[in-house]
């Protein structure tokens, strides 16, 4: 349910955000989170049971090195838009980010209470879920960002129309996500996950072919239907595989890693998409130039989705099918016969 809600929320937020920007101001899109957050704080004690408390030490060096490392990488990638990959600032930032992330891993190996227990990566299904989520969300953030610009700047939609323009994806996403719990009870979770990423890839690649002459229905809406269906299939198993088999004392850390790879994927993914868009040569027509930039960014998103599919096929799918076969053998194994004492 968490995975389905996350996907639906991301899609529905575009519609609501477009309406707020059209009727009030683009600033209202940020303010709307305030009453929602206040309501969550007020209702959390009533619906969420208090967990037991345990004494421990905060992994400050791990948190600091991870934050600075990801920040340096994102800054370096975004800096390529203006300065290119050979810029001393870009090279320094990216190199510093890589070094800091290596330092982070070394810290986590030695920390008594790490914020990212490396033992969670012992499972191929969990590791695959983290990496695939990183790549999948990296592709989706570019889709949201650049498709919105295409709708407004190329097709001439106002903010409300642009928000409503995402309804084909939102509606299909909702319908598919609501059926996922029943589907996952009948099939290995890796099957809808792989199918969802593949369908999202098909929609993303189709959408990446847009141009100044593209019509909304055939160039945007129909690809969105595929992306919505794929997102509805993929989000729930991506989340469940991120925590599957984790010991009770590591459940919080496993759930935290799901969200961490989610957020880091969006940060780096948007930076990569912007950098890809910046490689498009300037043309005499600003609208044609933007359309070409959108195509380049979405093509990059398609590559990220292809990598996510490869990770799923290499790590999650075989491990999940093997686990399911092992579970089936245990269920059909005959119970041991006890001999009657003589």
SSE inventory with pairings:
Layout (H helix, E strand, L loop, with lengths): L1 H22 L4 H4 L1 H15 L12 H24 L4 H23 L13 H31 L4 H6 L2 H20 L3 H18 L8 H28 L7 H28 L7 H47 L10
Helix pairs in contact: 1-8, 1-10, 4-5, 4-11, 6-10, 6-11, 6-12, 8-10, 9-10, 9-12, 11-12
Q: If you had to describe this structure to a student in words, what would you say it looks like?
A:
With 342 residues, the chain is mainly α. The protein folds into two domains: 2-25 and 118-324, Growth Hormone, Chain: A (Up-down Bundle); 59-114. It has twelve helices and no strands. It has helices at residues 2-23, 28-31, 33-47, 60-83, 88-110, 124-154, 159-164, 167-186, 190-207, 216-243, 251-278, 286-332. Helix 6 (124-154) packs antiparallel against helix 10 and helix 6 (124-154) packs antiparallel against helix 12. The longest helix has 47 residues, at 286-332. The chain is globular, with a radius of gyration of 23 Å.
């Amino acid at each position: 349910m968490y995975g389905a809600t996350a996907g639906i929320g991301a899609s529905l937020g575009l519609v609501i955000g477009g309406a707020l920007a059209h009727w009030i101001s683009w600033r209202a899109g940020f303010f709307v989170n305030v009453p929602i957050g206040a309501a969550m704080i007020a209702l959390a004690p009533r619906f969420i049971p208090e967990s037991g408390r345990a004494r421990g030490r905060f992994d400050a060096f791990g948190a600091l090195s991870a934050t600075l490392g990801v920040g340096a990488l994102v800054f370096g990638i975004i800096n390529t838009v203006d300065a290119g990959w050979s810029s001393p600032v870009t090279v320094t930032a990216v190199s510093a980010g890589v070094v800091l992330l290596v330092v982070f891993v070394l810290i986590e190996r030695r920390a008594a209470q790490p914020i990212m227990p490396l033992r969670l990566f012992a499972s191929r299904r969990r590791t695959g879920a983290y990496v695939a989520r990183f790549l999948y969300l990296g592709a989706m953030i570019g889709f949201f960002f650049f498709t919105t610009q295409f709708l407004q700047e190329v097709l001439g939609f106002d903010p409300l129309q642009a928000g409503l323009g995402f309804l084909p994806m939102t509606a299909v996403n909702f319908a598919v996500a609501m059926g996922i719990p029943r589907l996952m009870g009948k099939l290995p979770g890796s099957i809808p996950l792989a199918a969802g990423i593949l369908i999202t890839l098909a929609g993303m690649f189709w959408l990446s072919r847009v141009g100044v002459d593209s019509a909304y229905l055939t160039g945007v809406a129909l690809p969105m239907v595929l992306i919505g269906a794929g997102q509805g299939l993929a989000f729930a198993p991506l989340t469940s595989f991120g925590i599957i088999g984790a010991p009770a004392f590591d459940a919080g850390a496993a759930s935290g890693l799901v969200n961490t790879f989610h957020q880091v994927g969006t940060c780096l993914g948007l930076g990569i998409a912007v950098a890809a868009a910046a490689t498009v040569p300037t043309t005499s027509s600003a609208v044609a130039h933007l359309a070409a930039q959108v195509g380049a960014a979405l093509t990059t998103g398609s590559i990220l989705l292809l990598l996510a599919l490869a990770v799923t096929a290499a790590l999650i799918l075989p491990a999940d099918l093997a686990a399911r076969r092992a579970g089936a053998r245990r269920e059909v194994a005959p119970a041991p016969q006890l001999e009657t004492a003589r």
